[in-house]
Design a protein that fits this description.
The protein is mainly α. The protein has one domain. The chain has 5 helices and no strands. It is elongated.
Length: 79
């Protein structure tokens, strides 16, 4: 994917997630229509931030040997 090649694999994950969710909703929407809307852009940004925060949370949890209480506010605050 284009974004992954540029070093931001979270946006690639966002696109993949949106493409996976869309068919399961029972509706088929063309890629051009889906990617050309403000709603998709907002969904993509929000999902990208969620994926990024979950990635940070996972890394912090591993770094803290499973103790996630010290940095719990990082996953709950919107940046």
């Amino acid at each position: 994917m284009k974004w992954h090649a540029e070093g931001d694999n979270h946006q690639g994950e966002t696109e993949l997630l949106a493409l996976a969710i869309n068919p399961s909703s029972g509706y088929w929407v063309s890629k051009e229509l889906l990617f050309g809307t403000d709603e998709y852009s907002r969904l993509s940004d929000l999902t990208n931030r969620i994926c990024h925060q979950l990635d940070l949370y996972q890394k912090l949890k591993v770094h803290d040997n499973g103790n996630c209480n010290a940095n719990a506010d990082r996953i709950t605050t919107l940046q």
